[in-house]
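Usage

Read records sequentially. Each one opens with the input sequence:
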Amino acid sequence: MDGWQVNYFISPEAIAYIDAKAKAYGPAGAGALFGAGWWFWADAITTSPSTVPFLEYLPGIIATLALIMINCIRRDDLAAVDPFDDPSYCRSRFWLFLSYIVSFSAVVAAVWIMLLHYSQHPEQSAAEKWPGVAGIFQVCLILASGLLFFLARTPADGDGYDGYGSF
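and closes with the structure output:
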C-alpha cells in the first residue's frame, strides 16, 4: 500500500475543520477530563465510610506526573526526519517513551490496588469499594487529558507539521 493516505477516507476539508476545532477546544476538553478525574477521586475519598490509605493516592499522583512528562515535549521535536543529525530527536523520543511507561504503570497500579484491596473482601459495601473503581476512573481520565492536550497543541514554529500526534 504505497502512498496510503488519510485523504482517501476523509475529505481534506473535514481534516482541516477537525484540526481547527481540536486546536480551539482541545485544551478545554483536556482540562475538563483532568478535573473530572480528580473529582471522581475526591468524591470517593469523601464518601468512603473508612479511611483511604495514602498508598491508594499514588496512582493518581503518578498519572499527574506522567501528564506533565508527556507535555514537556515539543511536538516539532518528534517530527524530525533524520535521527542521526540531532541528538534531541532521540532524547525527545526516549522521554516520550519513558512518560508512557510511567503512565501505564499508573494504570497498572490503580488496577492492582482495586484487585488487591477491594475484590478480596466481598463483605464490603459498594460505598467501601468505590475508591478502587474511582482510582481507575481517575487515572484513565488524567491520562486521556494528557494525551488530548498533547495532540491539541500546535507545534512551536509551525513548520508545516499538520498531523495529529507524533506517530
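Summary fields computed downstream for this record:
- The helical segments are 12-47, 58-70, 75-78, 87-118, 126-152.
- DSSP finds five helices and no strands in the chain.
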